[in-house]
Amino acid sequence: MLGATSSTLLYCFVMIVCVMLAHAVTSSKKIGGKIWLFLIITILSLLAGFRSENVGLDTITYNWHFQMILDGNAKELAVMVRESSYVYISEFLLKIFKTPQALFIIYAFITNGLIIARFYTLRDKASLPVMVFAYISTQYFFTFNIMRQFVTVAIVFYATKFLFNKEYFRYVLCCIVSTSFHITGILGLVILVLYYFIYNYETGQKRKNVWLVVACIPIAIAGGIFLLSKYKDYFTGAVHFDFSPILALKMLILAIYVYREQRYRKWADVSLRAKMDKENLVVENTMPYVYIVGLVATMLGSFINYADRVGIYFMMFEAVFIGYVCKNSSCSSYKVAYLTILLYVFLSTVFSLGGRLQYAVFWS
Questions:
Q1: pLDDT computed for residue 274 by the predictor
Q2: So what's the pLDDT on residue 267?
Q3: 38-41 long-range contacts, Cβ below 8 Å, gap at least 24?
Q4: From CA 228, how far away is CA 209, in angstroms rounded?
Q5: CA 337, 339, 342, 344 torsion: positive or negative?
Q6: How many Å apart are CA 261 and CA 338, to the nearest integer?
Q7: Cβ contacts of residue 79 below 8 Å, gap of 6+?
């Protein structure tokens, strides 16, 4: 196992290299850019995939799952976990690769591959280096712990590519497939509702939103009851109060940004508004509101243990939103504020090494 200082330096080195490679992607031709992109995915995936069972809170549990499958106890494990499909997918892969570590590497490549690939598709709207920086700072280290849920998060996040192209069936299908690893993948449907709501608003079909809200209320209640019934043991007796100044600061900055942008749009020249690309407007307005939902959902973690994990699906848009602001906003204060917060979050994580992040490779 690496020492604390060596682990911190390793994570800092990986961050610097990945951000530099992301910059190289944006300044390279198409083929060369994709090579650098693949290097980013490979570095992040191998770092996560080669970790030992002592790195990350849940890694030892996943290692136990895979060992049970290898020992021929897949059926018993399928009864124990909530998503038996995850067990049978893992069993199929283990029949090919024969070792638990192979699954850590495969799931790491799926997770980081889909997330970084989605960033790449959004590079025209948001800064790719900033998105990579934000992802590593705020979400990447969670993949060491809640690996199975992050496979689901990655599938849903990449599928928003279809959503933003109005390929609703493909998006919903991806959300359903994602539940094979974690049932909370159905939360991706909330992003669909938000997108459709904003689309109706921007295209002058506000009446449809009334019916949309009416239809979604019973569905939301039923979905909430279903998820609570699945995960009630996580929440029982876990009420507390843990105020997060960083989360509150993010909420404040985002509120100011949305207020100023809406105020500008309200007084913008009507002829200019008429010429704006409605599709791009819908996509760009969806990002901050999905991010708002993510912040509010994450804030639940200040009161109930594990409740913040509900917000991960929406918080993936934090990186996209900050990348968008850094690329398009004329106000440098937003850029400085967000980049400072990201740097603080990253450094506090890699220096404290909380969540058992002191690094070791699996063969050590």
A1: 46
A2: 44
A3: 40/116, 40/132, 41/109, 41/112, 41/113, 41/116, 41/117
A4: 27
A5: negative
A6: 17
A7: none
Tally of residues, the chain:
364
Q: How far apart are CA 87 and CA 69, in angstroms?
A: 8
Dump pLDDT digits (tens) for 261-311: 765 554 444 444 444 455 566 667 788 888 998 998 888 877 776 777 888
CB count within 10 Å of CB 218 equals 9
pLDDT tens, 113-163? 999 999 999 998 899 999 999 999 999 999 999 999 999 999 999 999 998
| C-beta neighbour count of 359 within 10 angstroms | 24
* 361: β partners: 51
C-alpha pair distances (Å), 41 with each of 22, 140, 174, 347: 10, 12, 21, 21
Torsion sign (Cα): 68, 69, 72, 76: positive
pLDDT of residue 257: 83
CA distance 40 to 130: 14
